[in-house]
Fold this sequence. Notes:
Blueprint: E1 7-9, E2 15-17, H1 18-27, E3 38-46, E4 51-58, H2 64-68, E5 74-79, E6 84-88, E7 92-97, H3 119-123, H4 131-144, H5 157-178
Antiparallel strand pairs: 1-2, 3-4, 3-7, 4-5, 5-6
Helix pairs in contact: 4-5
Amino acid sequence: MSTAYADVTLESGLRVGMEQRVNAMFERQLTSATAPVQRMSVTVTMNDGELLRGNLRLPLSGRLFDAVNSAEPFFDFEMLDGDRLFLAKHSVRKVEAFELPRTDQLARRTKDAAAVFDPYEVLGIPKAASPNAVRESYLALARTYHPDRFAGIEVPKEVREYVSAMQKRINVAYQQLQG
């Protein structure tokens, strides 16, 4: 690609370089090097039956289908504990995205509403937490967001949906960290 280096003289006699205008036009295009990394929460079943849960890097299209069917021989996979793996596609039997209930009904839009699910963040614990700490956090959150706690109270529909979604997310997070 060549860059235009022509100068333009305006009516007022001021010279303006066209290079700046041409470069600004091309800077708006996303490339694989400049695009933000998109990840999707998935469960990967390996050929030997092993289950891996974590986040799979998606291509620029943001679609799981494109990631699975690309010519790349490896998946860029991030485990729930933060370890990053490159899985050979020929050793993977199945990739399933898991959809979790959204909890942003009451919250404003955040910087990124990506489909990344972090069970440690949901339970509010560090990644190095002991199994006992995981259980204690789960039980405390399960009591806080249990739907029966709000059964006798008049609350808006959005609040009920939020509480139900949080309960489901808490249960999924605990199941993932136990399994």
